[in-house]
Give the backbone structure.
Amino acid sequence: MNYEVRDCIDAGSEYCPCHLAESGECILCSQLRDKNFCDCINWKGVCIYQEFVWNGQKAKEGRKEIQCVLLNKEFIYDDLALFTISVPHKLAKELTSPGSFVFLRNPISDHFFSTPISIMDVNVEENRIVLALEVKGIKTKNLNLINEGEKILVRGPFWNGILGLKNLYKSKDGTSIVTTRGIGQAPIVPVLKKLYANGNKIYVILDKNPYKDIFIKKYLDLYNCELITTTLIDENGEIASEFKRILLSILKNEQVNIIHSSAADIINYNVLNLIGETIDFSCCNNAKMCCGEGVCGSCSVKNKYFDIERSCKLQIDPRNILEGRRLL
């Protein structure tokens, strides 16, 4: 039976209904998927169809770019910088949850230079966000041209940087495992904060490659994480034997309530295969984000039922996405 628990990250928010409703492809509302009956999935207390009609049968206004200020740019390595940006208070509050991200753009550049970056930390009192920027391609090099004190365009909030958020939120008063590699360290900070607030003992299995050191060390100490450093993946793209031994040892000796993986999809997939169906799982959403609004199709993936999913908005169990993807 092709059944999966689906949700839309924007449902019930000020950004719903979106452009998917206009084209008859709403994730949740059956009547906005060209059906002639009402069969709501994951009722949010708001009728999406009614909101659509009341809004003149068109999408709500989407996220706008806001002109903000780059307060600090700190290079940890030659190609890794921490950007601290001053943002409006409302936006800062909306970016505190795990999986939050924004699009950044240099004001001198065209709109297609807009770059999605995960939120690493938020200071709501001072209205500041911190992001880790890996300076590699055209877009990130363009962002790196911005100097401290200059304007930077921020578009957000976006929230679907993690698949399996429901699993993450319900994990309480147990033992949680977080695995990460490289730049994947940055988006696990809000995850650690949430798991710590939920009373969990947290193991972090971390592969610092390709960096020389761990750039989130202060957060690991802040949230009382037990850090284990190792290599996650071997040269063949398979789980490294030492990592496998460590993970299985923790699973054997602890009552683990969730495993969160923040790495490339091939690593997320292999971790999922290793743990099977017995433990809740969440992972970073490594889709190729482009517009963030479900329109461009860059984030489209096939699930295990061979349906096309827009992963910039769809919240779903990661198993239903990773098991159907061609990763190499």
Summary: The chain has a mean pLDDT of 91.
